[in-house]
From TrEMBL:
Gene3D superfamilies: Ribosomal protein S8 (1.20.5.1150). It comes from Roseibium aquae. GO terms for cellular component: ribonucleoprotein complex; ribosome. The gene is rpsU3. NCBIfam families: S21p. Pfam families: Ribosomal_S21. The keyword Ribosomal protein applies. This is Small ribosomal subunit protein bS21. One of its GO terms (biological process) is translation. One of its GO terms (molecular function) is structural constituent of ribosome. Belongs to the bacterial ribosomal protein bS21 family.
């Protein structure tokens, strides 16, 4: 990953870097690796994430078809 520093503006470069890391999911990965996660907790978390993704996809599809109003 690479971020260009323009005009010695390190603050802007740091903001860009943070945004890129956030988009890649690095912070979430670091948080999950901070402590050991039991296999049962991992399964429950992954299942909850899958349910969340499925609901989001269904909501987007319903919005595209005009069944739901956009927020």
């Amino acid at each position: 990953m690479q971020v260009l520093v323009r005009d010695n503006n390190v603050d802007q470069a740091l903001r860009v870097l943070k945004k890129k890391l956030q988009r890649e999911g690095v912070f979430r990965e670091m948080k999950t690796r901070r402590a050991f996660e039991k296999p049962s907790e991992k399964r429950a978390r992954e299942k909850a994430e899958a349910v969340r993704r499925a609901r989001k996809a269904a909501r987007k599809l319903a919005q595209r078809e005009g069944l739901l109003k956009k927020r």
